[in-house]
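Rotation project, supervised by the postdoc (A.L.). Task for the rotation student: set up a whole-complex structure prediction and record inputs and outputs verbatim in this book. Inputs entered:
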Amino acid sequence: MKYVIGNWKSNGRWEENARLLTRVRELPRPGVEVGVCVPFPYLAQAREALVGSAARFGAQNVSPFGAGAYTGEVHAEMLREFGCHYAIVGHSERRQYFGESDAVIADKIGRLVAVGITPIWCIGETLAERQAGKWQEVLARQVREVVERAGVDSVGHCLLAYEPVWAIGTGINAEPEDVEAAHAWVRSLLREVGVREHVPILYGGSVKSGNAHALFSVPGCDGGLIGGASLSADEFAAIAAAA
Ligand code: PGA
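Outputs recorded:
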């Protein structure tokens, strides 16, 4: 199975969404799961537009808490009630701008798995960390801290996304050799901590129609998390076709 999942980030307008979602409906194929993670206000629109299609939808965040006095938060049970299939956790933009720690990420994963939503758990090193030769250390820390707190069973229900921070939104994708090495490393970390399920590992960071085939052909790459290119129906369709 290959996964092609769009991350709209904080983008979208009602009419453009409607056009895009009409195309997304048609993209799933046998062996290719397609989904979109949309801003909260558009979840209802996505659900309605994708009803009867195999395409899935989800959120881009979730509260680490349950119901209660947490102003501004949306908790996992609400997402489940809405029919969300996924929620993204640990995206580098949330780590960078909202101080999301591995402990918070672990708690979010636990909340999602408890209600049957698939977490799309993002990990990845910064450019400085890669240049310092520390990417393996960084990925190991990100994986181990979450597994320690959330437990191997929760982690076994995730889709993992390896997203090198320097490749996100920059137009500079990681080279296939780097993706292969990183995915193999993450796979070995998951084995080492005792995750027995096959956790799909997606690649994210400047995936577009022109590089999707090469990236998705990398051994150990189970698909992609697509940011900017998921906002264009033609690009996203071409990426899904490459899968
Ligand atoms: P990008 O974003 O495809 O625009 O680089 C990927 C992501 O942030 O998930």
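Student's summary: The chain has a mean pLDDT of 97.
Supervisor addendum: Residues 7-162+186-196 form a domain with the TIM Barrel fold (CATH 3.20.20.70).
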